[in-house]
Amino acid sequence: MTIRERIEQEEQKTLSPYATLSINSKGRDVEEDECDIRPVFQRDRDRILHSESFRRLKDKTQVFLLPEGDHYRTRLTHTLEVSQNARTVAKALRLNEDLVEAIALGHDLGHTPFGHAGERALNRVCPLGFKHNEQSVRVVEVLEKNGRGLNLTAEVRDGILNHQTAGMPYTLEGKVVRICDKIAYIHHDMDDAIRAGVLRESDVPKHLSDTLGNTTTKRLDCFIHDIITNSLDRDDICMSDEIGQAMKELREFMFENVYQNPKAKGEEGKSERLVENLYLYYLDHFESLPQPLLAMMEERGESRERIVCDYVSSMSDKFANHTFADLYLPDSWKEL
Asked: pTM above 0.90?
């Protein structure tokens, strides 16, 4: 018996009857030989963790554009916090922790530079539209490994695609990531906003502090405990009506006071114009795109618009800024 088979047997003995077992996966688009050590979802997690798109998340905006402080979140640290929250819930509910971690680590791989500002810009300027959750699936199915993709299981791709409010994953593990994504960004974006002086703890409405706690740590603890308590031994992931409503109101508070606050978001208009200009430039200078993307267009019959979106959305904040400067800003004259 291989190590993988022993792990799969342990899953059957110890996980909840509502958990997704590795042996019951719907599989991959391209069939592969099984690993003798790792079950399928563990392999998916490892592939995501070692991917180029995952590494680029360290230089992509979460909320504050190009922050100068060392402790503000990036898209990478957001991803890690989602993963940790989701693993805590999954372990308590006896769900498949490998599947939860794979979905969490992959859920934002397709995010643009400059966060949602970049996403809005591409969605506006590209006639095909742009959504980061769909792009995250495209990254793992097509773009990674020069067009070969990561060949992930159906369950991981479903969780990545449906991690936003409008979606609903078909596994409980995907539902855990979906709710933990919201909890993570509410928690850490408020923490960053307080650090930046955009918010004070006393700004939080009193009835929300009374219900959820009067610090970011207490609120996170409240959310996690409430999910576990209300989802234990159930074929669903849910919160109590009281805490769920309070979280909804806190999220609305964050939109009003942080996500739409000119002090925090004053530079986003510049970022959107930068992303739009990069898109339009490469649409007109298609031949200057990296060769693997050009080859992919030939092999797959992809449109120019989609390939340009692939390239621009993959950029980190710094790379987008440097590329824009190289294309549009004059450089100092140098002697020949």
From this structure: yes
Which pLDDT score is estimated for 267? 79
* pLDDT for position 261: 79
> What does pLDDT average to over the chain?
94
9: Cβ–Cβ under 8 A, 6 or more apart, which residues? none
Instruction: Say how many C-beta atoms besides its own lie within 10 A of residue 324's C-beta.
Output: 17
**What residue spans define the domains of the chain?**
3-276
Q: What is the topology classification, in CATH, of domain 3-276?
A: Hypothetical protein af1432 (1.10.3210)
* pLDDT at residue 244 in the model: 97
3-state secondary structure string across 172-201 = HHHHHHHHHHHHHHHHHHHHHHHHHCCCCH
3-state DSSP call for residue 155? Answer: helix
CA distance 97 to 92: 10
Give the whole-angstrom CA distance, residue 186 versus residue 208. 13
What Rg value do the Cα atoms of the chain yield, rounded?
21
* Contact between residue 176 and residue 98 where contact means Cβ atoms under 8 Å apart: no
Q: How far apart are CA 36 and CA 1, in angstroms?
A: 9
Burial of 242 (0-12, 13-18, 19+ CB in 10 A): exposed
**What phi, psi does 153 have (nearest 5°)?**
-70, 160
What six digits make up the tokens of 300?
A: 């797959």
pLDDT, tens digit (0-9, with 9 covering 90-100), for 154-213: 999 999 999 998 899 999 999 999 999 999 999 999 999 999 888 999 999 999 999 999
